[in-house]
Write a structure and sequence with these properties.
three-stranded antiparallel beta sheet, 3 helices, 60 residues
Amino acid sequence: MPDVRFLTVAEVAELMRVSKMTVYRLVHAGDLPAVRFGRSYRVPESAVVEAMHRPIADVG
């Protein structure tokens, strides 16, 4: 895993413009992969970018 950048839940929430609770929900639902370090989660930056490009709802 060289060159993998991990973000905190707060950083992910800021990038995605959602609350930290929403990020936790995404992680627990399996929609956003994360690694647990002790009591906190770290999310790979690439997973955040991918999630932001994924359509959220089927409109139409």
